[in-house]
Here is the input.
Amino acid sequence: MQLLVPSIEKWGSQCRGFAGAAVLAFAMAAGFAQAPTLTPYQIKAGFIYNFAMATKWLSEDPNSTAPLVFGILGEDPSLGEFALLQGAKVGAHRNLSVKPCKDLSEAKECHILFLSGSLKSNLPTLLEETKDLPVLTITDADVGVRSRGIIHFVLEKDKLRFEVNVSAADRAKLKISSQVLKLAKLRKDEPGGRKD
Here is the structure.
């Protein structure tokens, strides 16, 4: 699996629309350069697309052609940027399907689930309810470690970064590419279920 990181010469031509955001998200995480003016949620959408490309759902048939469902639970803070992922090609035989979720039962049916900051006070409960399901949970709210998804976006020195809880990914039977893990701050659950 190769991450979508272009050569510096190609950035200008590839930075148009969503595909450019996906490319730039990983280029920035790898420390290659500053992005042209993109909103934080355009960059996050680019990351999420790459996470979809770089994750294997071990409990699922690897030859499945069913859409990979990206759900959003709570208010969508992206102002429509996440919706642009609809129909994006993920691998040779799958597309992303974006689904606003009304409740947790709908959210549990997703492959990837963005838990909005509007649910901040409920995040620990929601994460507990999904922890054993093959759902790649993603959060970005300014919360403590126990309220963070498998992937959590953080702002460090004005740069968007992400953490991956590898224990939670293993428990959910998700295999995240080593190339993604190299770019992440890695976390593990401590014995007793506490997250470090």
